[in-house]
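Notebook B, p. 112. Complex prediction, attempt 2.
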Amino acid sequence: MKNTISERIFDFLKNYPPFNLISNATLLEVSQKVEIQYFEKDQIIFSQNDNPHEHFYIIYQGSVRLYRFVENEKHILDICDEGDLFGLRPLIMNENYVMGASANEETILYGIPIVLFHDIILNYPKVSQFLIASFATNTRDPFSEKHKGKLFANVSAIQKIDNSFAEIQSANYNRKPITCSSDTSIQTACIIMTKNIINSIIIIENDIPIGIITDKDIRTKIGTGLYKITSNVNEIMTSPVVTFPQNISVAEAQIMILKHKVSHLCITKDGTNKTALVGILTQQDLILTQGNNPSLLIKEIKNAKDTETLKHIRTKASELTKGYLEQEIPIYFVTKVISEINTAITKKAIRLSVSEIGKEPPVKFSWLALGSQGRKEQLLMTDQDNALVFENVTPAEYNGVKNYFMELAEKVTEKLNMVGFDYCPANIMASNPKWCISLEEWEQQFEEWITDPIAEKILLSIIFFDFELVSGDETLYNKMAESVFKTIEKNLIFLSFLGKITLDNPPPLGFFKQFLVEQDGENKDSFDIKSRAIRPLVDAARILSLHHNLKINNTIERYEKLMEAEPQNRDLFESCANAFKILLQFRTSQGLANNDNGKFVDINSLNKADRLKLKSCFKPIKNVQEAIKLRFKTSQIPQI
Amino acid sequence: MIRFFKKKQTPKFREDHIYKVRNSKKYSNFEDIRFVALDTETTGFDYENDRILCIGAIAIKNNKILVSDAIEIYVKQDVFNKETVKIHGIRKNGSEEKLSEEEAIVKFIEYLDDAVIVAHHTAFDVTMINMALKRLNVGPLESKQLDTNYIHKKIAKTDTYKKIFSLDELCEIYNVKMHDRHTALGDALITAYLFLKQTAKYKKNNALNLFDLINTNYHLLK
């Protein structure tokens, strides 16, 4: 019955996923069936291993602590806030609670009957997709560092749905499933499977699927000697099979596979196991359907004939990033893949430009990526930072050569801009005559920066010190790197100046452990995660690497090398690397969620768990800055 | 003579009500008891002359407020007091679907079933309902009754013997958000929240059983 209370509950629920994804009529129906529960602080809502309740919960007021006992030791997994959902997965999976929940403070919960939700999951692909994303972030590793705060409050997963069609597109399944009759011997079935290079065979009777044998059955039932290889397949087959109608969507398939814990779904005429088999859908098919896989993308880049195609591929790469983050693929791997893709795009842009000019380059050159691209830490579409170096030429040749490379650089940066990499506002690009110069000129430039360290020059040099070869001649690139190290070795005081500058970004916690937020301007009350948290770690890694002559740019790799170079500071560098990984992942998911470069984080939009996670990254920043202060005696450097 | 007997005959809803309350087996086990948090909006505070405008009620069972088990009944008005319209917002010819007083009372008593009534200043709401019953020539409610005001007095540490707490004051004390204040169902829900919070507190120092709770209610005790 519709009434004042259910309307009030409706108004509350519609603000939170997945309730914002269902129709008003359905949501009102849900609102009318809610049970309201009150818990005092520390009162247990359910315990680990309890039988599942008939309701799952959304927090109306207060907060709830989720915890898990592992070998009698309690681990707090998460603190859920108002609007967070919990206790749903066991209800869908029909299993006992894998964690306990208790009220972290005085709490009011809305209990939502799971019976209502079964239909909603089937009728609303977006809801099931949301749930899958939420489960996925939590099932793989319940103690995973990053996403555990996202138990069900996985907002980025919701936003993903709006611009991706993968979950509602119909799943591609194998329409010619390999089958055999129930009186086939296991050996014959295995021969058929081997011949067809498949990992399953369906047992049919009059075209109707009655059972399935997978590689796993062969391993667990034949390999262990439980059954003879000469037995008939019906003795070891799994029966009945999980069936689904022909127009299955990816999301539905995922839910079915998750729900029934199977790796294969039989597609039948009407979706029941009483009609003819028309196909088989495997987990691998699902992965392929979703797969923008990186090697495929790189191949596509190589075949691309114009900028539009490159742009299209780069957009797909962004989708890939989102997918990786949701699946908690290690950030280190994700950055590598994305850097590879960006590098491939730049190479292609150079090749396209050369053929547009219609003349091969007059001398050898290198295209260099700078800044975050040079460090291979670029996940989102950020600004271009690049430069060009060409072989030393005679003064007579110089102008012609320079003009050629200027034309080339202009075309390349233009193309990159079209692909989605904005022009660098500071004009640090190869198309700037200052940064499109010969090897000789670069060496002079480095010398000038290092021997005369004034503030603006240092800030500029920082960007250039993280240069990485993208395309062209490797010898030129190596010679540039050597000149940097040689010049620094002769002018060690430069590192102290560099240290002084990099310490200008203090650890981001103020009094009372509050976040230091921006005081004014467009981003007031936001936390500048790039300048205040990521950059200090990048800067620290750079200065220490220059100190050790380490010719690597990537911040994580730098810290890993530093751990080897200074075993006594192993813990410090390890904590820096970990903090960096978390921050980078954080910035990336923020950027993807808000469709920007993720530089600013709105503190108020974070839940408590995320805030705690962010804060935990600040300690290593403080520690490494202290170390730099001491080592490079930055206090003796006058204000610059 | 026939007319006399007819008049004496108890209507079925009344018989059912008495039977259900007297024969309920649930009262001995707190988890099984269906409580109904109740609030009425009336044209005024005069038992004789004022009338019920709206009855709002929501059930509580095993420490859970059951939204699916709620009722909101608007009553057609013969008597009308324009002063109280300002408080509850129910006009004489508002758009809400309205029942006659008799239909409303029968519907409510059927909904009530064997539930224990919980209200704030229960005596007022119950008397208003009893007066309506009286106009139908039917005896008063037999349901067991609790009052959040008296439960609070039992829990409160300070001596509050003479103090009468308003619903707003209790919301303050028990940290209950006041939504939809002055709608019958809104106030019923607030009362239900209060009841959940009070029983949670009560439980700490007392064994939770219905009869002790009823004993807190010395004012209503007959």
